[in-house]
């Protein structure tokens, strides 16, 4: 058995009896070129797969960081995972949590902005809708109310806008009962579902927001549940 070296590679020549080094040198250059091209393509595919894996990991890392720094998002994540009875997030739930995280950040920045300019005398954060049908809030949300109902006389300033699967703890009321006053906020110009509905589920120590029709991208963007917690005798 003979072996020859071509470009630093040992080639066993047991099956090539009668051939000498000149036979290898006579192989057309384009065959070596094709092999180099194939090797380059395979390397690019490997790099692409690695980059894709890193991107996927980066997306989850970003979500994990948001969950770790936001008690509200952590509570939503816990409630979603408890509902699915799974120790891991499904791809769909991870996608929805990322969207909720983005929307939650937008809401918080908007709250900071309007809180700052209201302190400087801005008077139009909450604008009444004609015929006493509710309020336009921060130029983005519509609160529709019925006459003599909760929130019909004024937009509740000590309220919170909640997402699906978000819960709010009950207050410790002395000689009174904890109650959650609530209504639906609809984003102006959003793709709304005329059959959309929600409920506040009493879990004992808190109230949990539940969308009866489930959650998707449109419902996360289009709605918030406005909740004001009070102690009432």
Order of helices and strands: EEHHHHEEEEEEEEHE
Largest sheet: 6 strands, antiparallel
Radius of gyration: 31 Å
Helicity level: 40-55%
Shape: globular
- Intertermini distance: 99 Å
Low-confidence stretches at least 5 residues in length (pLDDT < 50)? Answer: 1-29
Total discrete domains:
2
Strand order of the largest sheet: 3-4-5-8-11-6
How many beta-strand runs?
A: 11
Strand content: 15-25%
| Number of helical stretches of at least 4 residues | 5
Helix/strand class: alpha+beta
Arithmetic mean of pLDDT: 82
Q: What is the topology?
A:
Blueprint: E1 3-6, E2 9-12, H1 21-25, H2 29-69, H3 71-84, H4 91-119, E3 126-128, E4 134-137, E5 141-144, E6 160-162, E7 167-169, E8 177-187, E9 198-202, E10 206-211, H5 217-222, E11 223-232
Antiparallel strand pairs: 1-2, 3-4, 4-5, 5-8, 6-11, 7-10, 8-11, 9-10
Helix pairs in contact: 2-3, 2-4, 3-4
